[in-house]
Every structure is written in structure tokens, then in C-alpha cells.
Amino acid sequence: MIKKVLIAEDQECANMSLQKALEELGITDIDYVYYCDDALASIQRSKHSNESYDLLITDLSFEEDGRLQKITGGKELIQAARQVQPDLRVLVFSASREAATIETLDKTLDADGYVRKARNDAKELKEAIDKISKNQRHFPRYIIDLVKQKNAHDFTRFDIAVISLLAQGTLQKDIPAHLQKSGIKPSGLSSVEKRLNLMKETFDFSKNEQLVAYCKDMGII
Amino acid sequence: MIKKVLIAEDQECANMSLQKALEELGITDIDYVYYCDDALASIQRSKHSNESYDLLITDLSFEEDGRLQKITGGKELIQAARQVQPDLRVLVFSASREAATIETLDKTLDADGYVRKARNDAKELKEAIDKISKNQRHFPRYIIDLVKQKNAHDFTRFDIAVISLLAQGTLQKDIPAHLQKSGIKPSGLSSVEKRLNLMKETFDFSKNEQLVAYCKDMGII
DNA sequence: AAAACCTTTACGGATTCCCGTAAATAATAG
DNA sequence: CTATTATTTACGGGAATCCGTAAAGGTTTT
């Protein structure tokens, strides 16, 4: 059963809506914060006073402003929170539709649910909270499709490094040196060329510029 | 004075928060829709029954779903709405931070204000509505900086065409043919090369990939 | 209409990239 | 330890690009 909830969401509007949705579910013990660091502090404090939260609802991306923060995003917050309180349920509420991100939340960070800011998000939130309170997980259908679609190509750490370097203006022939400095293997020029070719073939692209544009669109870089 | 408001926002949560913010300002005559087409229909209907809206608050991007829509985004909605009711005030509420987009809203579409979904967006919304009701406009400070920054280089129709072609995988040497087909002048390969060089020099870039990445980030292509 | 100026295009050498093949190295199996 | 396989790297010829210079085509001034 979910009684005590913490909301970590920097958008005031979204934060308000989350509170309202929870109240409509009969959950009244709600704290809300606008920064990740505040969220972690609240979790620590409530744990020490034996009033642990049952659920954390968090956004993924938090805007930077004057206040310098240790934790800058939802993913890091989830990890830090679980270190403090491993049994904490986590529901992510974000606008992101990146398959890679959502897959990480599901598989690696072991979040209990994901609701995307979109049409009917309020209804879906209630549904998700309901399911989580019954020890179920909530990752919507369309994500499975997205993940499949994305898996037309798995962008490895290597791929992303190479494309990022290109997008930063690094000459192709200079990429091996940069890769070595970052300790990424392989680092040979031929490996870079081969991998770029593979990616371009996969997507039926002809030029690196296309690859950069695609990765920008997909939020991969 | 603003009495009657229409909200066009597909995210249920954001829509709810907008309603709440308006109510806190003492505005009670609120309609809300989740689709652009519905918004336009409401505007037409209310105008014909002499109960025109004073203000339209709209998002920019609307999610596609099963319902096929004629108007697919906030920009088109603004244009269509102004055709029906030229004196309609428009406040845009979106997560976009692209300078190009916001500049278009200000200069071309002549929106009355822009509030970004971010920290303190609820407060800013109220401020914006207050200003608009006093016949002022509300475009936040940081946008001016963004626009300035962007205007380090004026991207011409020619520039955008060339960079777009690159991002689509067109070989540089094939670009002249495409430009001619689109009736864009100049179209010589040397002109393309020269212009690319100028742009790269302006931004201190070394490669086309960098230019593509930048234009993607800025929403130029 | 000639001169001066600016824009666009043409050309060519140096560099970089593309791409196929082959060698070298690492990993796995027998 | 050797054989087999897979991965990584090296090499080289051809294509595309970068970049500087010069010619061609327009426009404005006098």
C-alpha cells in the first residue's frame, strides 16, 4: 500500500498536477521538491525518522539554474535513493520517448514504472500508481515497440564516442588518438571506418552528416 | 481584460495545471481541448455565437495518435486561429528552448507571450497572463540572449538548403543539381563550398558534421 | 560605354575520406 | 600447444573534399 509519496519534479506545473493526481487517489501524505539534491535529503531524513517514503515520483531531466546541484538528473537520483533506501518504489514521469533511456530505467535502474508526459498522462499516472501499489510494474506498450525500432542498431559506447567526436569537429583520422585517450577500445582508424560503414549501411545512410543528424534527432548524442 | 480562455494542450497534466493557474487568477470561463482541430472549432463556434475567447493558451507540439488531425502543431493553430479571429491573444506554453522557434513566435506569428515549461512555470504563467491583460507582451529575458547568440550568423535560405541536403546524405558535389531543381541561387559547387567555409569559420568549426549538429541543436534544420 | 566592384563559377593540387584486401593480434576450441 | 575463428589493425588506390587562385558574369558608378 502506498501512503507516503515524494515528488521530485522541477516544472512547477507538472509538480502541481502530480500532487493533484495523488490526492484524487486518496494519497494525502505528499512531499514535493524541485531539485534532486532536496529529494535525496528528504529520503534520508524520512528514513532516519522511521517515516520512509513508499514511492518516489521523479522526472528525468532537471533544469540547471543558479543553485549548484550534486545530483543533476533523475537517473542519478534513482541510484542515490536506492542506496539509501533499497526498497523504495520509483515511478518515472518524463517527456522522454527515447527507447534507450526507458530501457535503462526498466532493465538497469529497475524503476517500477514509467509514465510519459503526453495525452492522458494523468489517467496513466493513476493507473501506474495503482499497479505499483499492487507490486506490479508499469511500462506502457508503445515502449516495447520503440525499443524494437531502436534495436535496428545498438549504439555502443564506441559508436556514440565516434559520432560525438565527429559532431565536435574531430577529423576522422584523428579519432583513434582521442579514443585511446578515453580508454575506448578498439581505437584503430580502420575499426572506426568499419563501424561507421556498418551504421550507415544499417540505416541506409550515405554520409556521416546524416548519422550525426539522426543521432541528434534521437537524442543519442 | 481577460475573461474567457481556451486551453489547447494535449498533456493532461499540463492542461490541468493551466486550468488551476487560471482559476487562481480569478478566471473561471475556461474551455480546454486536447487537439488543435478541436481548438480551432471552439474558436469558430464561440466567435459565431458572439462569445469570442480573449486568450488562447497553446502548446507547440501535439502528439499524434489515432485521431487524424488537420492542424498538427501550435504554430499552425495560431495562424489558423488568427484567420478566424485576428484580435485573439495567444500565449504559448511549451517545453521548447529553441531560439529559432521562439523567434518565429515573436516576430512572425506575433504571439503575445511565451512561457517555457520549467521551474516556476506556474508563477511565470500568471505573470504572463497578467501582462497580456494589460496589452503587454511576455517573452522572457533568456530568449533574447539565445536569439542574439544564434544571430552570430544569419542562416539564409541557401545556407539551410545546403545544410539540410548534407544532413540528408547528399554528396557535396551533387548539391548544385539539387539546388537548381529547387530554384535556389547560387547553385555552383564553389558557392556551396565557399558558403560552408564561411559558416564554419564563423563558428570556429572544422567539419560539416559539426555544422549539422549545431543546426540540429538550434532547431535550424 | 568603360571602369570598378561584387558575385558566381571554374579549375587544380593537397588533403582527407572511402572501401576493399590482407596482415596481425586476440580469443576459442580441439 | 596448435588449429580455427573472430576481431582489430595496416595498407593502398580511387573518390570526394578542402582551399587557394583565377576567370566569367552582373551590377553600379562615373
Topology record:
Two copies of one chain form a homodimer.
Chain A: E1 4-8, H1 12-24, E2 29-33, H2 36-48, E3 55-58, H3 74-84, E4 89-94, H4 99-107, E5 113-116, H5 121-133, H6 141-150, H7 157-167, H8 175-181, H9 189-203, H10 208-218
Parallel strand pairs in A: 1-2, 1-3, 3-4, 4-5
Helix pairs in contact in A: 1-5, 2-3, 4-6, 7-10
Chain A binds a DNA duplex (30 and 30 nucleotides) through residues 171-173, 185-191, 193-194, 196-197, 208.
Largest sheet, strands/sense/barrel of chain A? 5 strands, parallel
Average pLDDT figure of chain A: 89
What's the gyration radius of chain A in Å? Answer: 20 Å
Please indicate the percent range of residues of chain A in DSSP E strands (runs of 2 or more).
5-15%
CATH domain class of the largest domain in chain A: Alpha Beta
Strand elements of chain A, count: 5
The CATH architecture of the largest domain in chain A can be named as 3-Layer(aba) Sandwich
Category from helices, strands and their pairing of chain A:
alpha/beta
**Distance linking N and C termini of chain A:** 40 Å
* Oligomeric state of the chains present here: homodimer
CATH topology of the largest domain in chain A: Rossmann fold
Helix content of chain A: 40-55%
- SSE order of chain A in H/E notation? EHEHEHEHEHHHHHH
- The domain count of chain A comes to 2
CATH superfamily of the largest domain in chain A: Response regulator
Which parts of chain A are unreliable, with pLDDT below 50 for 5 consecutive residues or more?
none
* Bulk shape of chain A: elongated
How many helices of chain A in DSSP terms? 10
Going across the major beta sheet of chain A, what is the strand order?
2-1-3-4-5
Largest interface: A-B, 39 and 39 residues
